Amino acid sequence: MQSIIMAVAAALLAFWPMVVSAQCAQCKGDFDGNGEVTIDEIIVAVNNSLHDCPAPAPRFTDNGDGTITDSSTGLQWEKKDSFDDAPDMVTCPGSASCSNPHDADNRYQWSAEGTNPDGSAYTDFLAKLNSGGGFAGHTDWRLPTVSELQNLVDHAHFDPSIDALFNNACAPICSVTTCSCTVRDAYWTATPLVDLPTSIWTVNFNRGIVDYFDDATLYLFVRAVRGGA
Q1: Treating both helix axes as pointing N-terminal to C-terminal, what angle do 39-51 and 2-13 enclose, rounded to 10 degrees?
Q2: Which end of the chain is less congested by CB atoms within 10 angstroms, N or C?
Q3: Could you tell me if 170 and 83 are in contact, meaning their C-beta atoms sit under 8 angstroms apart?
């Protein structure tokens, strides 16, 4: 902290003459009124200004409706629930849990035929979220871009590498308003590779690794977002 204050002081002194005119003897920072502003007085002024600064707000906020808002980007994220790590792959549509689009066990295809974004991630998962009145009152849910999803990676956490609000009180039977789940595996993004549009970028939250799959018909996990792009 002292080094930061000294850096601020040095920057201020570059534009602030050491001796001020007599009529400015009581300027802010000239605490002893001698017509000079010293480094010690600048440090005191900076400390005084920081004393009542509010603590920074947390980046992520659980909205209590099954969503989490990121204050740094303004994006609103879907929470996942009911993760029981089923030994058999849960593919949607077709599995019983697919009726709940928030079930963390559900896996979806990015593409039905390998090229276009027409797999069950779009036709089943997003369709359910955006049907009727929508999820949490919104009907503009989408898959995140690779940059957006990568931005959720938090290397201060491991397995999964994500903020605790996205993996809190996770249990086989819970709801998005009572728990939050993140699978330690790859999630689809909406972003194909520029020079290879049949390959899709993914983010793996086991260790927070960005990678791509060259088969868009594979079944991977998904998380919806709204806002931004």
Answers
A1: 120
A2: N
A3: yes
pLDDT value at residue 121: 98
99-119 pLDDT, tens digit each: 999 999 999 999 999 999 999
Residue 40: predicted pLDDT: 73
Q: Which portions of the chain are predicted below pLDDT 70?
A: 1-29, 31-33, 52-55, 229
10 plus 94 within the same structural domain: no
What would the two tokens of residue 171 be?
Answer: 């249990």
Side-chain half-sphere CA neighbours of 7 within 13 A: 4
Cα–Cα distances in angstroms (integers) from residue 74 to residues 15, 53, 68, 168, 188, in the given order:
37, 23, 10, 21, 21
Interatomic CA distance for residues 6 and 145, integer angstroms:
41
Containing domain of residue 154, as a range?
60-226
Number of folded domains that form the chain: 2
